[in-house]
Amino acid sequence: MSRKSNTIYIGKNKSFWDRNRRSGGYLLKRTAGQTAWSIIRGLLIFGLCFMIIQPLLTRFSMGLMEEKDLYDSTIILLPRNVTLDNYRIVAELTDLKTIGGNWHFNALINTLWVSALVSLFQIVATTLVAYGFARYEFRGKKFWFACVIAVIVIPPQTIQPALYMNFANFDVLRIFTLFGANAEGLTFGQRLLSVVDGTGTGLIQLLSGQTLNLRANIGAYLLMSILCMGIKDGLYIYMMRQYFQGIPASLEEAAYVDGCGTLHTFVKIMLPDALPTIASCFLFSFVWQWTDIFYTRLFLPMVSISTYSNQMSTMVTRMSRYFSADASKAVVVPNGRQQQLISIAVLICAIPLVILYIFTQRTFVESLAMSGSKE
Q: Whole domain around residue 207: which residue ranges?
């Protein structure tokens, strides 16, 4: 400690200005710097909190307004005419309540169990794959990890047509056209091309005479998740691979010496240490799945399983008939009214995620803080 720092504590029972004089003005400078930094830090934290909370407060306030308040320029945040009827309308538009009937929350319950199940499948698969990338050497390892990075970089919308065609006409081993199945009038080159582009006859069509349509089937979605082709699976593999690489190999070597096998070592040694990171990946997966409309529209249309994200994405098209006195005729809903109801739907969608984060923030923060050697 420097000489100036020592003088701060000499005669600490004396007055501040006396101690500052004895430190040559250093105590005043340090106190002023700490106070200024505390004020700046407080302002930054307040600004960040305001940026996060203000949209929620705005949507909550807008949801309490009657329609005439939306077009009143004198109303900024607090409504003049308070009503809860807007929440009833949104609930009926998003399958949380039967029109004119009881509350059942079907869309939220379906979204909850679908998100939890898909996230569980994703985490199980990506944890095993990440451990393999972190600890084992095999042929083509760099190439396959490059494919993982490509899954992160390439947006899923680019493969939407291929996904649609593949699962609408699902089959395996599409090679039998090459051997003459359903190949009348095709040259050998055309048969070979059908094998390459995936349009040839597969095993299921050969046995049953037709392919399977797995579009409105959650089993297809779970199949993609367990094969690491779900939402952001590449990111989860990358995060857990980096964590497993940071764990010293000496821990596993000690377990092998004690007689543990590979699977036993992974379950008893590696997984408990990686729980915070696994929990964070599960939270990421759950949140992305909760608000996803790309895969849910493809595999879970509303005629199959009613999810909240699907209901919310089609609210505007159903408003025109909802507000019409004649269900066979549509009316024009003002844009302000549309935005009000959409804001309420977004708020309802965000509330479960906020509650989830409140109860899991400690685990989430721990996963971000855990770094460095575990020796």
A: 171-211
